[in-house]
Amino acid sequence: MQSTGKSVRELRTPLSGEVAYETGCGEGGQGQWINISRTGAAVVLGRYLRPGRLIRLDMAAHEAGPTIPAEIAWCIPAPDFLHFQAGLRIVREDPETVLHFATLAYRANEKNKFLSKTVLDADPLPNVDLSKLTSAV
Q1: Is the distance from CB of 70 to CB of 93 less than 8 angstroms?
Q2: Distance from first CA to last CA of the chain, Å, rounded?
Q3: What is the pLDDT of residues 65-97, one digit of tens each?
Q4: For residue 114, what is the enclosing H or E element?
Q5: Chain segment 117-132, per-residue pLDDT in tens
């Protein structure tokens, strides 16, 4: 976690791929991941969504699982002025969705470590077998 002045920002891990969302009033769409953190994510959307609006993320593009509730934290025009970038705050309403989102963030982090050729000198959790943790999800 990084603290800048009065705001706190979680460390972000780049994530690529598509994500579907629905707004609860029958609307929905497709977006593209930008990054993911422990508590939220950033995505590119084809339309503006008002901050505070609740949506549900459909993670089927990455793997089967529950839809994940999220709140739009911010939404601004993308540099191309054709899309919008939005920050999402994950709503932690039940353990299954929390675990599913955390697993997605963990896998994104592991993939980026592998792609950047980062080598760990020691196990981050010495008494935990991470292969059992991720294969059970």
Answers
A1: no
A2: 26
A3: 678 899 999 999 999 889 999 999 999 888 887
A4: helix 95-115
A5: 444 444 444 444 445 4
Yes or no: say if 52 and 89 are a contact pair by the CB < 8 Å rule: no
Q: Is the pTM of this model over 0.85?
A: no
Residue 27: phi, psi to the nearest 5?
Answer: -95, 160
As a whole number of angstroms, the distance between CA 30 and CA 22 comes to 9
CA-CA distance, 24 to 55, in Å (whole number)? Answer: 7
E strand intervals along the chain = 2-4, 7-9, 13-14, 18-22, 28-36, 40-45, 54-58, 68-77, 84-90
